[in-house]
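S.,

Sequence below, as promised.
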Amino acid sequence: MTEWTAAALPSFSGRTVIITGANSGLGLVTARELARVGADVVLAVRNTGKGDEAAATMSGSVAVRRLDLQDLTSVREFASATEKVDILVNNAGIMATPYARTVDGFESQIGTNHLGHFALTNLLLPKITDRVVTVSSFMHVFGRINLSDLNWKARPYSAWPAYGQSKLANLLFTSELQRRLSGAGSPVRALAAHPGYSHTNLQGQSGRRFGDALMAVGGRYFATDADFGARQTLYAVAEDLPGDTFVGPRYVMRGSTGPAWRTPLARDMTTAAALWELSAQLTGTRWPL
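The prediction came back faster than expected:
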């Protein structure tokens, strides 16, 4: 079997794709490839200057719009100003960063990686015609959802467990979103993807010199490039896959693209439903269908 690559993308002419965090790394490659095959691509980014620089490197129809996932007011303004979207790619993320809070008081990793995208998806869902693809990580295997302290207010903060929690939340969100879409009779599908271990600007942001040095070494000698990582997202965007499919490299970090393994915790529908209700309460967004 020939390994799937972005060269196999079909025409996306006439289709609008919104990609969060598309001014660098995996998001930039995802946007570049979809614009190449005719999609009307929207780079939803916090820094529009960097977004403009990224757009200038792409061919096709590419627009840049401001979206700050750490500010729910920005998320609502973005969604309100959006008229049409066929595919939403929840790509933006931060990884193992020092403790910080979003504008709305959320721990920054769960706030950016999950809660911001949760709100954005719910607000845009009545306008989405095809699918929602959320970028998770194999690091979800180290994640645990703490429903009583999702935002690390009562326990000592630890950057990597916080990241793992946010990436596990991405998968539980995808599963519960698909369950709700199916229950509503919607043709829209929810899927997730993970890039394996791709060297992007996410690494080395923990603020810990030794850990960041290890990540730098790993990125240099073991990681794949952003084109490989984005391939997993593009496969989830383009292929006719069942809802709640999790896409990734066959051998975790490398290998052919296809359905990927997830932990039992990532399949816990009781936790997925509870996380959804908590996320709706925290973000003030409701199920729109």
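The helical segments are 25-36, 48-55, 72-80, 108-124, 159-183, 209-221, 226-238, 269-283.

Coffee later?
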